User: Fold these one by one.
Assistant:
Number 1:
Amino acid sequence: MALSTLTWVSMLVSLLLLPGVAAAVLVRSLRTEERKLALLREQGDVDSYSPRALSDLREWIRANPDDPYAPIARRRYNECVRSLRGIDKPHYDWSDEQIARLELVDE
Amino acid sequence: MNFSLTTPTIVAHPYNYLLFKGLGRIIMSDSEARTAREEWGSRFGFLMAMLGAMVGAGNIWRMPFTTGENGGGAFLVAYILLLYLIAVPGLMAETMIGRYTNNGVIGAFKQVLGSKRAQGLGLVVLIVNVALMSYYAPIIGWALYYAGHSVLMTFTQPGFQPQAFWDGFINNPALVVGMHTVTMAGLAGVLVFGIRRGIERVVKWMIPLLVVALVAVSIRGVTLPGGMEGVAFVFTPDWGYLTRGSTWVAALSQALFSTGLGWGIALTYGSYLSRYDDVPLGGGLFTAIGNTSIGLLAVFATFPVVFAFGLEPSAGSNLLFISMAQVFPELPGGSLWAIVFFVSFFFATFTSGLGITEVAVTTVSEETRLSRTGAVLASCGAIWVLGLPSAYSSAFLGRMDFMFGSFGLPLATLSIIALVAWKFGPERARVLDLNRNAGIYVGSWWNPVVKYVIPVVMMFILGYGVYSSIGTANQRLMLLGVAFMGALVVVSTVVMSVVGDEPPSGSAAVPGGDD
C-alpha cells in the first residue's frame, strides 16, 4: 500500500520530534557529562550556574533578601562566583569580563 | 520514626572524588571520610533507569491504538504539543525536588513542608505507588511467562492455540500467583544491590536491548505484505479530531500518565543525583521524549503486524498476549521474532517495576530503622501480598487499575506538583536548583506551567474521570475510588501527625541535600 504524502510527512515529523530529539538530547547529555568530568579532573572544581542562571539567582536574592531560602541561595551564588574565580576553563559560556564583574554577596 | 540507621556507604560516583576537593570544603567538616547517600554511577545509567522506569506496558499496548483511534497524525500533534508543554516541565519539577532534598517521597515532603501533618501527602504518594505496583507486578509476571515460553519456542509449535494458551495461563491461579511471586523475587534480587550495583547495572543493558529489539521488529513489520496499512492507520492525520474534546483528553492522559509524572519515581531517582548532575535535560526532556519515542517504536513494532495479519487493533493487552502470539508461527523465523518481541516486552515491564518499587524501598529505608536489605524485603513482601488478589483475578486487577489509575495517580501527581509549585515555589525552585549544573537553561515560562497549568489539567482529568463514569457500569467504582482517595488523604494526614518526625526548628527553610 502506498502512503499518501500527508501520511509520510506526519510520520517523518513524528520521528524527528520524538526519537530524533531524544537521541540528540541523549548525546548532548552524555557529552556534557564527559566535558564536566574532564574539567573536574583537570581543575578540581567547576562552575555550577550559567551566566543567565546566575543572573537570575542574583536578581532573586536581591528581590527576596528575607526569604527563608535566601541564605541557601547566597551560599550557592558565592560558591559559583568563587569557583569561577578559581578555575581557568569554565563549563558554561563565561567570558573573562563577565567573571571579573561578578561580586560576592553578603552571606 | 527515625532516619535510616543503615551503614552508610562510600559512594563511587565519578564526581565523588571531588568530595575531597571543592564540595569537601562544605561537607567534610570533621575528620571522618565522606560517607553519603548512594548516587548513580554514570549519567547513562541514570538516563536509562529513568527511561526504563517510565516505559512500560502502556507504551506498547496502549499508545499505538490510542493514536490510531484518535485521528492518527492529528492525535500526535495534540500529544506532542502537550508532552512538551506539560509532561516535560512536570518531570523537571519532580526530579528537581528529589535532587534538592536528597530524600524519598516522605522525606521530601517533610523537608519542604515542615509540618508533621503535611507529611501525610508524602504517605499518599507512597500508598498510591504501592497500590499501582501491586497490580502491575502480576502484569510483569504475564510478560515473564510469555518471554519464557518464547525462549522455549512454544508459540511456533504445531497446533499452538493462542487463546487456549492464554486462558490456560490466566485461569490457573497457581501459575499466575507463581509468576507474580517470581517477579517480586526477581525485583527484590536486583533492588537489594542498591542503585548503582542493582538498578543501574540491569537497566544499562536492558533498555538498549529493548530499543534494538523494537527497531528490529518494526523493520520486520513494515516489510510484511500489508504492513504499511498499519502505518497508514496510525499516521494518516484526520484533522477533524483536533476539534473533538475526547482527542485532547486522550492526548492529555497519555502525555501525563505514560511519562511517569507523579508516580514518585522521578523524585526518588532524582534524589540519587549528585550536585553536579543536570536535571532539566535528562530528568525532564530526555525522560519524557525518550519514553514517547519508545511508544512510537511500539507503534511500528505492532501495528504493521496487526494489519498484515488482519488482527483487531483495539485489543489492548489481548493484542500482545493473544493476537501477536498467533502471528509468530506464520512468520519466517517466527521463533526468533517471538523471543525478540516478548523478551523486550518483559524488559519494558521489569524496568518499570524496578522504578516503582524503588520508591517504596527508598522511603522505607529512610523512614524506618531497616537496612536496605530489610527495606527491600519489606517493600517487595508487602507488594507481593497486596498483589495476590490482582494476580488471582484479572477482574480485580481491572478495578484496581480504574481506581488508582483514574483517581490515585492524579492525586499523587497533584501532591508532588503542589509541593514544588505551591510550597517550594516555582521561581525559587528554578533559580535555586533547577538551573544549577543544568544542561539547558529553563526560563521563567516554566513557573506558570507548573504552578497553574499542570494542577488545572490534573483537576480536569480527575473531574472528567468522574463525569464520564456517571451513568455507566463504572459509576459505583468511581464513587468508591473518589471516597477512597478522600479517606486516604485524611487517614495519611492523621497517621503522619502521630508517627511523623518533628520538622527541624528554627529556620523555615531546610537546606537541600548538598547544603
Note: The mean pLDDT of chain A is 93.
Number 2:
Amino acid sequence: MALSDPGKYRDKSADFMAMWHSKRGAEVRELVTEELIEEHATNPECELGHQSGELVQVLNYLRMAPTPGKDFGYMTSPFQEYRIGLISVRGAEVTFPADERIFTSEHEVVQEIFLRRLVRMGLRDEESAS
Amino acid sequence: MRPLTIRGYCDPLVVSPGDDINFYVSCDHPGEVSPRLVRVVLGDENPDGPGAKEIPVEGVNLMPFEGMAQRTQAGGHIVVSALPSAFNAAQGFSVHLFASPTLPAAGQQALIGQWSQADSRGWELGLVDGHVFFRVSEGNVTTQVETTKALFAGIWYSICASYDPDTGLTVSQTAVVGSCNGRFGPVVDLDNDSTQTMSGAFPLAVTSAPLVIAAVAESENPGRVWVTHQYSGKIEAPKLLNSTSLSAAETLALADGKVPSTAVACWDFAEGITRTGIPSDQAVEIIAGCHGQLVNTPDRAMTGRNWDDTEHHFIHAPEQYGAIWFHPDSIDDCRWDVSLTMRIPDDLGSGVYALEVDQGRDVERIVFFLRPNPNNRKKILFLASTFTYLAYANQQVAVQAAVAQSVFAHTAILHDNEIEVHERSLEYGLSTYDYHADGKGVQYSTWRRPILNMRPQHRYCYSTLWNFTTDLHLLNWMEQMGFEFDVLTDHDVHEHGSELLKNYNVVVTASHPEYYSTPLVNAWEEYIASGGRGMYLGGNGMYWVSVPNPDRPYLIEVRRGEQGDQGWRANPGETFHSHSGEKGGLWRLRGRAAQRIWGVGYTAHAFGTSAPYFQLPDAKDPRLDWMMEGIAYDDPIGDTGLIGNGAAGHEFDRYDLTLGTPPNTMLVASSFGHNVYDMVVPEDQYFPSSGMNGLEHPNVHGDITYFSSRNGGGMFAAASMTWVTSLPMNNYDNHVSRLTGNVLRRFASSEPLPAVD
C-alpha cells in the first residue's frame, strides 16, 4: 500500500535505544560500587591521574545521555559558589531543583551531579544514595 | 540565575586610529546608560591566575545615552518591495514554487505571500501542520484551501495555487522524488500528491505589505519589514503567473521546471552564480527585474529539486543549484539603531579595547580591536583570530549536544552568559558549530550581534577558557614581560596579505587560529618563505577553510567537508562556499596542511586534562642554545597551567614529514601523559579502533618545533591551545614563559635567526 501520511511512520530507532539502554544500563549498573563512587569523589576529572576502566565506562554512559533534563553545574559566583540546574531544549528556560543547595567548589558540585545522574539513569537505587 | 539586562555589539569590529565606530546597545530597562572605554588586558577570574585586569582610557569623553530595548528579527527570508505592474492579485493569479520543507509539521509557515498578518489582508501560500494551504482575504473574510495529504519532511514538492475572484481557489502538491535530491528515493511507494479546490466568489484586498518569500509581513506599517511565520526548508524558483487557473498540462510543465509564458515574475536563486560563487544578498527576478532582498542570509548554493549527483560544485551546474535553504533562527545582522558613535583618538595605541556600558545592574563589555598607526609600528604583531571568534560566536552546541560532555570529558559548568544564550537563542543567533532548528548545520556567522563568548570574563561551559579569553593570557604575559606589540586581525591580513605581515619582525598567533581563508594561508606562506618569523602559540590552527563575505565583511561562511573534528557535515553536493566558490572542509584535504607552513598540524584533542612536554634530542643541539637557555634538558616544560594543569591540552598539533613539515625542522619536545578521553582526530583514524585515545595512541601528543627558512626567517610552534595559559604560573617564572620569552626576544630582534639545516 502506498505511503501517503507521514504521521503514520515513527522513528523506530527509539525501540533500539530503549533496548540498548535496558541492556547496557544493566551492565553499567553492575559497575557502580561504593568503591567506584569513592573513586569519583577523589578524582572526578582525572586531575589525579587515570581513572579506572569501570569509572570511564560509567562516566561515558552518563555523559552521552540526551541533553534535556541533564544536570549541570551553575557557577553563581566565579570559583566560589555553585548550584545545580537542569538543561532544557534550546530556547527554553533553564530550571533549578527546589532544594537550592549551594556548593563551594567545582569538585563538590560535580560529585553531586554524578550521584544524581546515577539515580536518574537507574544505575543506583535512591535508597542507597541517601 | 542573574539575567543579563544590557547587551550590545559594535561595527566594525576592527578599527584604526581616527575611525568612527558605532555601538548598538539594547537594554531591558529604559534609562540612562553610562559608557566607558577600557583597554582589555585579562578577563580570567581564576584565583590561581593573575586576575582580571582592565585599564580605563583617559581623555575619551563619552556622553551617557538613553538606553532602550531593541528588537532582533530572526529568520531568513526574502523581501520583494515592488512587483511587476502586470501583476494584479485582486484580478486573479497563479503562484508556483518548489519546496522541500524540513519541519513541515512545525505550526504555520509561509512559503510566499503578499500578506499582512495584523490586518489579515492579501494572499499567502504556506504550510499549516504539515499541509499546504492557500488563502486570500479582504480583511474581514479569509478563504483558505488546504491539501489533504501532509508533506513528508525533506522531500521536494512542486506546489501550485490559483485564484480566480469569480470561481475560487485551487492548491496542489506533487512530490518530486529523485535518487538523491531528498530524504528518501524512488523505492518508496509514495502516494502523496493532492489537489483541492474551493469554489465560489471570494474577494481579495491587496495589501501594501511587501511580497515576502519564506515568511509574511507582520503588518502594513511602512518602514522596516518585520515578519512572522518563518519557514524551515528549501524553496526554489517561486513565480507568479497571470493566469487564474492551471491546466493539468501546465501543472505538469511547472513540476518539470518550465517557466510558462504567463509568468510575470520568477525568482531564479541560481542567477548570479559565477566562478567566484554567489555572495550576493539579492534574489534575482528574471522576467521583470523585481529583485528580492535576502534578509538574515539564508543558505545559498544549495542543491535543488533536480540535483542528480553528477556535479558537486555549484558553479559547474548552476541549473541544479536553484534552491535557497531558509531557517527561522538565522541572524546576519541585528539591525539595531546606533546608540553611540565614538571617534577613535589618533594617539590611542593598538590593542584590544572594550566599551563598557553600565546601567547600574550589570555591565556589558563590547570588545573591539584597534590597529596600530602605520607610522608607529612595533616589532611584534599579535594576530587576533577574528575568523575563529566568529565561527564560535555564541556557540550553544557544547551545551546542547548529547555527546558534548563525552567529548569534553567534563560535566558542564555554566554561568550567566551561557544560560542567557541558551534561553534567548533567537536573539543572539547561532555559531557555525550549531544546528538550525531542522538539524541543518549553521554555515554563516556575523559580528553584528552581541557575542557573549567574546567578552573578557567569559568562561567556556566546561569550566575552561576558549579562544578570545585564552588569548588575553598571551597579551597579559607580553605586557608583564615588557614586550611591546601591535594587534591586527584575520580580517586585516585577509584584506592586505603578506605585505602587512612584512612590517613586523615577528608575528605571534592566537591560541586557536582554526579558521583560515585562502588569502590568510597565502599571507603566512609568503611571509615565512620570504624571511618572516612566526610563532604559532596555539593548537588546531589553519584547519577549516572559511570565507568572509566579499561585500559584507561582518559575515563569515564555513562549509564543513566530509572529514574533520566537526560539529556537523555539509550535505552531499553542498561542500563549496557560496561566498567564493571554494571547496570547504580541511585545509589539509586541499593540499595545504598547516605542517607545510607552521611545521605542525592538528593531531588530537584533550579537553579534560592537559600534559607537559618532554624534551627530545634536538633540544640539546647547540644551535638551539638560545632557545633552551635556562631550561635543563631533563625538565618537563609546562607541567602546570590554568587549563587542565598543563601546556599541552585542549587541541594540539604534531610534526609530520608526510604532511609537509619542512625536513629541516627541529623536534624540540613532545607531550606525554594524555588520558583515555583524549582522541586522535577523525581524519587520521582511517579504520577506527579501540585504542585511538591518549592513553594508548602515539598520535595523541603535541610537538614543539622550530625551523629556519630563508633570509633569516623561521617558525616556532608550541602547538597547543593551552600553552599560553601556562605562561602566568608561578608568577610567570616557569619554563613555558622562559621558552616563549627566549624565542620571542630572538625573533623580535633584527638579527637573522640561526639557520638549522
Note: Chain A is about 45% helix and 10% strand.
